[in-house]
Amino acid sequence: MRPGTRGPSAVAVTGIGLVTAAGRNTKETWNEVTTARVPSGVRRPESLRDLPCDFMYVVEGVEPETELGREIRLMDRFAQLAVLAAREAVADAGLTPQTWDGARVGVVIGSAHGGLRFYDEQQAVLDGRGPRRVSPKVAPVTVPNSAAGSVCRDLGARGPSLAVCTACASGTDAIGTALDWLRAGRCDIAVAGGAESLASRLVFAGTCRMKALSTRVDDPAAACRPFDVDRDGFVVGEGAGLLVLEDPEHARARGATVRATVAGYGASNDACSAVAPDEDGRGIERALRDALADADVAARDIGHVNAHGTSTVMNDLVESAALHRVLGDRPLVTSTKAMTGHVLGASGGIEAALTALALEAQLVPPTVNLDVQDPAVPVEVVAKTARPARLECAVSTSLGFGGHNAALVLARA
Residue 224 catalytic? Predict the structure, then answer.
């Protein structure tokens, strides 16, 4: 039996749904991430005009107003993207909400910020037109659990439902939570991952002041450059990435195609800083070691890492050093954020999906904007061009404000 597939602890990935700046669905996203030479989704939204960083990765080619109908009135854009990704993931799994037992279907979706787009819009209404013009939908639309609730209503999922908010680790923690649910028998199917859409002028302005965002305004498509010697900060993106996870027996009984397995999960907190990773990297190292132990795989089994790789100076150094301590020189490392942007709480969902696809295709996506790897980064980062590889197990890692760390181990089906 191959590493990561033994026993009841590994759960089946039977469906994948992606809506990103690299593509409006899974096929388009994967094709763009593995073949494009430069990012195509970087735009300058009107809401960011005149800020020191006035660009971000934007999802195009989707029409939520047409696809979601009247229910869209109760969804901020992050929830809309979540529903679109969930629909694709469920269809990809060969499932139909009309025939499943909705009480055995769980939904857990991570988001760092929730519905800030709608919040900003209504704040402008309050300031300009007064309180009597403010929408009564502010509370249900802006809360971070709006995406999970919207997906539950759309799919008729009546099992456990949860919103995870651990900053940029949210999507990874959501999948880890779903893994625990399935192992405990709380549901047979779980839709899990992350969704985010942040074009908040206030949050962007504050993050610029933190000096966390790239200010490469003269060449925004080249601004997100993880592990590059000239990186100067991350670039925000929007999107959603959701997996359909199933109890292996349930998937087997219905003859489902298993695309990969989620075999292990680990999480920790640095307990060090509200915004910066612990410089010794022991937190992400601990999460990674726990994920390997949970999956019952050895470091030598890991052939690929989809790293958090934000393109900030400190994060890339801390994370890569921890990866090297735990996994050594063998794994091929990449950061797909150069194609999708840093999608904050959705990053872990999107990157877990891309990790599953890498295992399926036996292909490691490149870090497209990596021109010269920082000599202080001690791992082998795949740059410019996707690289074929024999992969049995892979890791996806996430680090978030507040000291949150999370890691998943996935295995080839």
Answer: no
